[in-house]
Amino acid sequence: MSSNAASKALSSAEALEIASPTNRDHASGEERADWKTRLLSGSGFTTLVSVITLATVLFVWWAVTALGYIDALFLPAPQDILSRIARLVTTGYMDATLQQHLAASLWRIGLAMFAAVLLAVPTGIAIGRSRIARGIFDPLIELYRPVPPLAYLPLIVIWFGIGELSKVLLIYLAIFAPIAIATASGVRNVDPTRIRAAQSLGATQWQLLRHVIIPSALPDILTGLRIGLGVGWSTLVAAELVAATLGLGFMVQSASQFLATDVVVSGILVIALIAFVLETGLRHLQRKLTPWQGQSH
Amino acid sequence: MALLELRKVGARYPGSRNLALSDISLRLGPEQLVVVLGPSGSGKTTLLNLIAGFALPASGQITLNGAPVSGPGADRGVVFQQDALLPWQTVLENAAFGLALRGVPRAEREEQARRQLALVGLEGFEHRNVWQLSGGQKQRVGIARALTADPSILLLDEPFGALDAFIREQAQELLLNVWQKSEKPIFLITHEIEEAVFLATDLIILGGAPGRIVERLTLPFGRRYAAGEPVRQVKSAPDFIAAREHVLQQVFQAHHA
C-alpha cells in the first residue's frame, strides 16, 4: 500500500522531469548512468529479446551442423553458407554471379512497380472519387485479385510466351490491385472538413485533387505500395521458379535440381534480406514523407 | 444595407425528408457579430452549411451582396470546429493557401499571411508544422487562413468547442479583437451560452424541431469589451448575468417545447 503510493509519487516526479525542457539538457549526462533501465523498458527491451532470439536460432543452427546431427545435404552449416555467398558473388552460379541474378530480379520488379504506380494510383483516385469508375473497376479488380498469380501464369505464358514480358506482366498484375484498392480507400477517407475548407477558399475541382485529396491519401497510397511490393516480390520469385534463365528464383530452383543445398539456402537468405530492405526503405520513406501520421490532431 | 440575407429559409437533413430548419429569416450587416445559439439538433450546423454553400436550402433564398448563394466560395471564409488545416504545409503556407489557389505570387501572399498571423498572435510561428501546434493555436491558424483569403464575411462553426475553458476565454477575446481590427462581419454558431452572450452583437436563439428562431436579442457586451472594458468586468456585470440567465431560460424552454 505505502510502496504503491511511493511509486506513484516517483512516477509523477518523473513525469514532471520529462515535461520540463531545461532538465532535458542535463539528461545526456544521466543517460549513460541509467542505460540499464532504458534497455529493460519499452521498445529497447523488445529489440533486445529479438536479438537474443535470432542469436539463439543461429547458435542452434551452428550446433546441430557442427555436432553432425543434420547432414549438410539437408542443412549446410552457417559458415559454409557464408563462404558459398562469397563464391556466388565472385564466380557465380549457372553462368551468372549473384549480382546478375539479383539485378535481373530487381529490374523485373522495378519495371512492374513503375507501371503499376503509374496506372494504379490514377485508377484508385478515379474509384475513390467517381461512382461510375467505381462501378467499372470494382468488379474487375475484385474478380482477379483473390486469384493467386501463379494460377493465371500459364494463361499469360500462352498469350505472351516465356519472355520478360510475361514475368513483368504477372508481377504488375499482382501489384496493381493492392495499390489501386489502398489509393481508393485513402481518397474516400479524406476528411470532408478539409475538402470543405479548401472549397471555401475557392479551390477548383482540379486544385482540390492536387492540393488536398492526393496529399491526404498519400499515407494510404504508400501503404498500398508497401503491400504491393511484398506481394510483387513473392510473385516474382515464384515466376522465376517456373520459367527463367536469370534471377534469384531461377538460381534457387536450378540449384535444388542439383541438390546444391548451400546455394538454395544462400538464395533464400538473399531473397529474405532484399524483402526486408525494401520494406524498411518504404517504411522510412513513409515516415519522411508523412511525418504527421500518428501525431495527435 | 445587409451583406448577407436569409429569407424564409427551410432545409432538410441530407438524405432525409425531415425538416432541419424552417422559416429562418435574418440579415447580417457590416460591423455585426451574429451568434446563433441552440442545443444540439436545433439545426445550427445546417444553417451554417447553407450559408457556406455546402448544402442548398429546400425553400427560401440566401443572398450575399445581393447575389444568391449557390455553392461554396472564397467570399465566405469558414472556420471549423475541428481544425481543417493541411498537415504537410507549414503554418505560413496554410495561412497563404487561399491566395496560392488564386495564383497570387509567393512573396505577396506570404506577406498577407504574415499580417493575418500577427493579428491572431502567431508571429514567430510561421515555419512551424501545424501538427505540432496546440488546439488553440490550430484554430488561430484557421482564422488567419480564412482572413488571408479576404472574404466578405467570416463563418465560424463552434470554433472553440474543442478547447478547454481557459483557452476558450482567451480565444473569445482574440476573436473580438480580430472582428474589430479586420472589420469583417462574423457569423458564429455555438451551444455555449456564456460565449454567445459575450460575443454577440446580435444573438439568435434556435429551438424546436424543425429548428426555428425563438428569440432575437441585441447585446452590448462584445462591443464593451472591444471598447476597452476588462473581460472579467464585463462577464461579472449584473446586466451580463441577467442576460445570461434570460438566454439560459429561453434555451431550456425551446428545448422542452
From TrEMBL, chain A:
Stored SUPFAM superfamilies: MetI-like (SSF161098)
Matching InterPro entries: MetI-like, MetI-like_sf
Name assigned to this protein: Taurine transport system permease protein
UniProt superkingdom: Bacteria
NCBIfam families attached to this UniProt entry: PRK10160.1 (NF007545)
One GO term describing the cellular component: plasma membrane
Record's bilayer topology term: Multi-pass membrane protein
Assigned protein family: Belongs to the binding-protein-dependent transport system permease family.
Annotated ABC transmembrane type-1 domain residues: 102-282
Major localization class: membrane
UniProt entry keywords in alphabetical sequence: Cell membrane, Membrane, Transmembrane, Transmembrane helix, Transport
Location relative to the cell: Cell membrane
Coiled-coil parts of chain: none
UniProt function note: Probably part of an ABC transporter complex. Probably responsible for the translocation of the substrate across the membrane.
A Gene Ontology BP annotation from the UniProt entry: cellular response to sulfur starvation
Gene3D superfamilies on file: MetI-like
Transmembrane segments: 45-70, 106-128, 140-162, 168-187, 231-252, 258-278
Automatic annotation (TrEMBL), chain B:
InterPro entries xrefs: AAA+_ATPase, ABC_transporter-like_ATP-bd, ABC_transporter-like_CS, ABC_transporter_ATP-bind, P-loop_NTPase
Keyword ATP-binding applies: yes
The ABC transporter domain, residue ranges: 4-233
Alphabetized UniProt keyword annotations: ATP-binding, Cell inner membrane, Cell membrane, Membrane, Nucleotide-binding, Translocase, Transport
One MF annotation (Gene Ontology) recorded for this entry: ATP binding
Record-linked PROSITE patterns: ABC_TRANSPORTER_1, ABC_TRANSPORTER_2
SMART domains according to UniProt: AAA
CDD domains cross-referenced by the UniProt entry: ABC_NrtD_SsuB_transporters
Gene3D superfamilies referenced in this protein's UniProt entry, alphabetically: P-loop containing nucleotide triphosphate hydrolases
Protein family membership: Belongs to the ABC transporter superfamily.
Protein name: Taurine transport system ATP-binding protein
Lineage: Bacteria, Pseudomonadati, Pseudomonadota, Alphaproteobacteria, Hyphomicrobiales
